[in-house]
Amino acid sequence: MNPCIAVVEDEKDIAELIALHLQKAGFQVQSYLEARPFLASLKRRTPDLVILDLMLPDSDGLEVCRYLKSAPGLSAIPVIILTARTDEADKVLGLEMGADDYVAKPFSPRELTARVRAVMRRAERRSESKALRFESGLALDLDRHEAEVRGRKVELTSTEFRLLAFLAQRPGRVFTRRQILDELWKGEKIVIDRTVDVHIRNLREKLGNAAGVIKNIRGVGYKIEG
Q1: Residue 190, pLDDT above cutoff 80
Q2: How far apart are CA 116 and CA 29, in angstroms?
Q3: Together in a domain, 116 and 40
Q4: Are residues 20 and 77 in the same domain?
Q5: 22 within 8 A of 5, measured Cβ to Cβ
Q6: Domain enclosing residue 192, as ranges
Q7: Count of alpha carbons within 13 Å of 1, Cβ hemisphere only?
Q8: CA-CA distance, 147 to 141, in Å (whole number)?
């Protein structure tokens, strides 16, 4: 079955344009003009990716993103924010809430389709290693895409998990922000330079007592130790 993309966009013409191009690219598409029917649909089917407008008539798109990235069973769904808002503060806030990409209007439907493919490739990428464990209590199951701290499951976004797994598979090695960006995003366009710092901060908050496993090497970058 082809991947299903949920398009949450209140402008009908734009939603139809996106759906047309995604369907031509082989995706299934479900379109929603408001947040409420989209959220209700999650009880019936979980999409493989969400394209989310920020300015919806019945809800702030950032709040919808926050919900998706914090809800059990939904947090791993990749989210691409699509909006006319171009302020850096909005971009940072979207990343802080776990969005995987940010596309500003007006946009190229072909570029958006390419972004969808790229985000889904990143979400599907897995390591051959099965499990990693650390003295801090952190455990990663790379096949199941799951993280635990002393037996407590930690809900991570797909981007957060990939970042944590990348560092965890190379314990003790320090990586610069640029090396992390190049490895995880493979040279794709990055919105802002603070991307890595935002995701590291989110990771530390979610890891709780095991947050110290991620070390900040001042002036260099990050590593995992212990």
Answers
A1: no
A2: 12
A3: yes
A4: yes
A5: yes
A6: 131-224
A7: 7
A8: 6
